[in-house]
Amino acid sequence: MPETITVAELNSRVKELFARTPALNDIWVSGEISGLKKYDSGYYFVLKDANSEIRAVMFKNAIPRLGFVPTENMKVRAFGSIGMYVARGSYQFIVEAMEKSGIGDRYLAFEALKKRLGEEGLFDASHKRPLPQYPKTIGVVTSASGAVIHDIITTSESRYRADILLAPAMVQGEGAADSIVAGIELLNRQGVDVIIVGRGGGSIEDLWPFNEEKVARAIYSSKAPVVSAVGHETDFTISDFVADVRAPTPTGAAAIILRDRSEMLSELDSYMTRLNRAITAAIDGKRHSFEILDSKLSPEKAMDSLDMVSMHLDDLSSRADRSLSDVLTAMRMSFSALDSRLQPQRALEDMHGLEERVEVSLERIQTAARVMLEKQTGRLAAVSDRPEMAIDGILRDANGRLESDSKHLEGMNPTNVLTRGYSMITDMDGKVLTSVDGMDIGQSVTIRMRDGSAVADVTKKERQR
To answer: Which residues have C-beta within 8 Å of that of residue 382, sequence separation ≥ 6?
Structure first.
């Protein structure tokens, strides 16, 4: 009967086989470092070339023999042996010594493309577009099954609400670059306000689609501004340089695009405070003008003006009387001189004629004085009404401005925007449902709205044609 052994025994035999095989021990292997991570126990990385790769580890007891600090994409020659990790049944290259041999091909390709696109102007600050302050629709190009879209939706729930439109795309592997380009173009056709292009962290191979030229040119040609959120904060890709804004993480991208609600309320309070101050200052200024106007147009001042007009009229009347008296005296003297030479009857007639002319002149002067007095009295009455008319006009103007400013502030109130009917339907596991094909009759779903959520059962579904 054939021998039966456990899995652990099988892996132990393989480990012993590796140890007894000279071709797998004390050998030099050249390759490029990828996925480098450092732990207390040592360096863990992948050693690869253009055709293959192998997991490698350099334990901490061998690190002091290094004359340099290993970095991602570094080409090295590693000395060591093949070992088996029995618990997992995986083999790895155990590095005992290592030396640098150059820069990785991926890194050289990255730097060459970065230099060429930079010279073409794809990274110029003049092409960077500002993000919309209050976007209505956010497009996201990422994997439909990854954590990125979930993190973006979760972050958006505590901030200014916006519709989120997902363009599912491959984010690593063969064909990923074409998938990302197609997602960007689709969202631009849908007319979104801003686009997030991103994925979680990974090795340079995992992130390489975001270093391809076709993705860079699609971002540059996008009608909507693009936020690049690829990998972790320490990861940089060509997409980061060409995008309008780089976010350290996908969650950070949502925080950059959507304003915090508490921040918006604080800003609104600041606007209200400034408006109140402006209105108070305007009212105080008008009140000061009223006081100046009142001091000039008070009844006491008006009576003083009337008294001055009356005095002027009295003076004119006195001057007219004196003039008439002088004229009569001179005429009487002339009459007396001529009396001896003129006939009495003729002189008497001339006297009566002169007296009539004098009376007519006197009547004209008195009429003119009365007209002048009536005009001054009318002006005084009109002036006495002006303060009330001026005050009414200013108050109407101030009320109009206050009403206009109030309407403007009401338009800026974020709560009005939040009531425009945004909602999201998910299944009971929290998966977003975007099509009736994803629903079943009798299935329970959760409807999320701006002020809460509700659970409903699907009783009927109909696909739009």
So the answer is: none
